[in-house]
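Re: the pair you flagged

First of the two:
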Amino acid sequence: MVHCSCVWFRKYGNFIDNLRIFTRGGTGGMGYPRLGGEGGKGGDVWVVAHKRMTLKQLKDKYPQKRFVAGEGANSRVSALKGSKGKDCEIPVPVGISVTDENGKVIGELNKEQDRILVAEGGLGGKLLTNFLPLKGQKRVIRLDLKLIADIGLVGFPNAGKSSLLSQISHAKPAIADYAFTTLKPELGKIMYNDFKQELELYKEELQRKPALLAVNKMDLPGAQDKFHILMHQLQNPKEFLHLFEKNMIPKRTMEFQHIIPISATTGEGIDELKNYIRKSLDEHANQEDDVYHKKQLLNLQISNTVSYSKPPPKSPVTSPR
């Protein structure tokens, strides 16, 4: 049984799951010794999570992989307190782990607009620094994408999950004729002509995910007859629930978009299964796009409503003498 997750990587081409970049906070502004003026602090460098961003997009847009914040403004007679330098934001996808050169974890960005300070700006010139500015923090950081899957394989022990994974992807899991051969999660990638890939994700709300059912071992004797019986049971589940113990009956029965007979041994039905997987992913990607665009349109409408509904400024009222 194959479940689609709610995350897709839509950027076609070579997939990138880590990136090493240089960051530097801005230098502070000069102080003004004669009047005791303080220079502005240098800008900071932040890593900020965006849903519609990939590491490949980041690399393509910034091939130098160098991010430097703005310098603080100098103190001057007309502005003794210099303004802060402009911050620099590095847009990254959701699900990024940020580490320094030594592998120490600086932080993680797990949702939209999460942000982490990675390089702080230098202090502006002041009495403490003899009115001389300090340089910003230099830091080489590594961005690692925590891989999240589009598809998960679910099935009974010895049902052929590992055999199927090896057939449809580049994974090479251990395969043997006894239960629980696979003792740890196995990760595979399906490569399509446009380079869209499949990864792996498990969540508690698995039952509510769109699902495909792959019926394996169709190469065994009597498999066709058993498949027809299974199809009848799936189409009329209430007629067969009494065969299970009460604590084994799910509150919500699974509904499958497609049911595909396959054989991970002979390869029967594998291409058809891969096509249905891709079709299902694309359908739900389009649904997500529709939801996103509707949300953006709603935000725009709300923004316009607010801007046009502001009351006009009150004019001063004078009383006749």
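Second of the two:
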Amino acid sequence: MWSTFIVQDEEVRTANTSASGGLEGFLGSRGGGRKRRHRTHSSSGDGISESQEGKIKLTLFMAVTGIMLTVLGVGTEFWVELKPPKSFYNNQTCLVAHYGLWKCCTKTFWVSDMDPKQETCGPLHLQGESNCTFFKFYTTGENIVLFQKTPEKDLTVASAMFAIISLFLMVMGAICIIMAVSKGVQFFLKPAAVCFILSGVLIFLCLIVFHQSVLSFLASDQSIPLHHEMSWSVTCVGCAGALVIVAGVLFLILALPYSPWEKCLPKKNSDI
């Protein structure tokens, strides 16, 4: 009797173990199927592979660097520096002006603090009394007078509009790339590439128009000789334009359904 009970108990345990093992194997096969389906979806033509995602993130870092340089350049007023001869006003002080898209600043220096061999006033890093004001032609339409000259407000406003539209396109391109990486969809790479390339072109148009406005400003009155030079804000914006254009071209290449290197340099099949 006891032996019969022990044999039945062992048979029940064996049946439970085999049933649980079969259930785990079934669930494991279903999980493996899900993983296989997920990998198949990620490696399809519409998805983004892991190697491609790394290239996209690296190119996005380049584009974000361009955006930061654009914000730095557009937000500062060191686009052009205007330097008269240091002995033009008197032998004690001289005046230097610099302005950008939104604001103009003047700075007064002591002539004794400057290099005696230097002919023009400055440089800007010397200690002096500074006075800055925003351009009023964005609000009231009034223009300013610097060294008896007036900036060309139409060209300045046009260059500012190019810069703002360019920044907007950069932000839209970055949003498209973030959506492409988060959703794993390759479709967003093409509009992002178009946004970055157009933003870079607009940045260079902004620089060209601003330089033309500076030339018009200098030609408005010839009574005061001025030495002008483009400052570091223009350098930031120029580098930003080059970075976003390169990033846009790289995004466009990554959006292609095939590798351009394989098309241009096909691998030769060596038959042994």
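DSSP finds six helices and five strands in the chain.

-B.
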